[in-house]
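Worked example 3 (structure in, sequence out).
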């Protein structure tokens, strides 16, 4: 970076429901890193739904001017004087959970619950996110990747892989042989959720919104699939389980399916939720809670160690990132539109170094 003063970044300076009206490629200053930070030459950035929330300004406002992007991969370009675990040229991926690392929650392995936690590229700024040619992060927020994981795959798996692992392994306590219901099986988290459940030798029922997506669920390992847009989708799930219900529901759709998903749990079952893209205000029949002794737990992101677990299984070809499209950086806003319209199966990637 010596001699370089500016870089290309995808910036928006106001909120709007239409990403194409506000997200523009601009020249910004190359950041100066702190002693504990690392400068990364960004080769791939993955899209997440929080990109849209930031652009819309809902459910929260974000610092302006804003650069979104939580999942990046690339090579280390420069290290601060206090950095010891990586060096220039290392291949790395971001861990987008910024936490204090010293509070009781952080030191007990729950950095995702830190009261000072921020999601990098969503809540951070001004001008601090991953849709740019060079990005900086604290040393503790980057993880090395092996040579047999491509930059595109690393960016695609980082957030969704870590979140899915946290949901199923840490929060839902998945066990071999269980029946697992994966809602929204062709979402980023859903696709990884299917693969983690199969890694644990579980029987997987996935849901999707059309035939193409249903076929994709079966392709990546689901044993059964139903269309959650059909009014009787939950009855089909119950029939598949011979009326017994499921041990775990992996949920992130929210209001339109939540009551039925809760009702599908068998005695002592667990629903783990990490989102609510169709709405937050859902009602449930509380009798399921106490008569069946079910567990309803939340999950958000995950730990650095959980990200490393996912990268291990990705390097060993047991978890495969599913990439919908790779977009050149000058057309990167197209990815926001595709995500907003639901026009994707798997993750969409942009490549900031390729204009």
């Amino acid at each position: 970076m010596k001699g370089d003063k500016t870089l290309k970044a995808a910036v928006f300076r106001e909120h709007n429901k239409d990403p194409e009206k506000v997200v523009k490629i601009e020249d910004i200053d190359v950041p100066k890193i702190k002693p504990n930070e690392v400068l990364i030459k960004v080769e791939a950035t993955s899209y997440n739904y929080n990109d849209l929330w930031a652009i819309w300004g809902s459910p929260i406002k974000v610092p302006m001017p804003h650069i979104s992007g939580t999942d990046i991969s690339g090579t280390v370009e420069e290290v601060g004087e206090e950095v010891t675990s990586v060096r220039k040229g290392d291949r790395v991926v971001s861990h987008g959970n910024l936490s204090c690392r010293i509070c009781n929650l952080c030191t007990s392995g729950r950095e995702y619950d830190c009261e000072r936690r921020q999601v990098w590229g969503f809540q951070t700024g001004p001008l601090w996110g991953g849709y740019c040619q060079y990005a900086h992060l604290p040393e503790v927020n980057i993880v090395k990747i092996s040579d047999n994981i491509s930059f595109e795959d690393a960016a695609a798996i980082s957030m969704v892989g870590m979140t899915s692992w946290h949901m199923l392994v840490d929060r839902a306590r998945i066990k071999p042989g269980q029946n697992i219901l994966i809602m929204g099986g062709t979402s980023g988290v859903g696709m990884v959720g299917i693969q983690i459940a199969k890694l644990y030798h579980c029987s997987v029922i996935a849901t999707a919104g059309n035939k193409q997506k249903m076929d994709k669920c079966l392709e990546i390992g689901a044993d059964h699939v139903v269309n959650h847009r059909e009014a009787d989708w939950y009855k089909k799930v119950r029939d598949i389980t011979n009326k017994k219900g499921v041990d775990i529901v992996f949920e992130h759709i929210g209001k339109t399916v939540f009551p039925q998903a809760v009702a599908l749990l068998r005695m002592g079952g667990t629903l783990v939720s990490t989102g609510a893209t169709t709405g937050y205000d859902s009602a449930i029949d509380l009798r399921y809670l106490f008569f069946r002794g079910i567990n309803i737990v939340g999950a958000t992101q995950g730990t650095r160690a959980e990200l490393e677990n996912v990268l291990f299984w990705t390097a060993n070809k047991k978890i495969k990132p599913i990439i919908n499209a790779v977009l050149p950086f000058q057309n990167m806003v197209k990815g926001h539109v595709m995500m907003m319209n639901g026009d994707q199966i798997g993750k969409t990637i942009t490549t900031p170094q390729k204009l």
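Notes: The mean pLDDT is 94. DSSP finds eleven helices and 17 strands in the chain.
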